[in-house]
Design goal:
27% strand, alpha+beta, 88 residues, GMP Synthetase, Chain A, domain 3, three-stranded mixed β-sheet, 2 helices
């Protein structure tokens, strides 16, 4: 495994700790994390969706901030950019 693959794997493991309080499952187990990519050293981009369009999701802000915080807690990640991909 390359260094980038190891980092992406560590980020995905950490994102499994982000639980959607309405459903009781992690954002990873729900399939909401669509892609994790390394942009540059210390910077990652996470593409995720929500279960409903973001303007209708009461937990959108909470989930986005929780994913960002979890990713940025992984050693080697200084900044996580979150892109929401609408589910339709």
């Amino acid at each position: 495994m390359s260094g980038n693959e190891i980092l992406v794997s560590a980020i995905m493991d950490k994102l499994k700790e982000v639980i959607d309080p309405e459903v009781g499952l992690s954002v990873v187990d729900m399939g909401l994390i669509k892609d994790v990519s390394i942009i540059s050293e210390g910077k990652v981009k996470i593409k995720m969706s929500l279960t409903v369009p973001s303007f209708m999701c009461p937990l959108a802000r909470y989930l986005i901030l929780s994913v960002k915080k979890a990713a940025e807690s992984v050693p080697g990640v200084k900044e996580a950019e979150i892109e929401i991909i609408e589910p339709y």
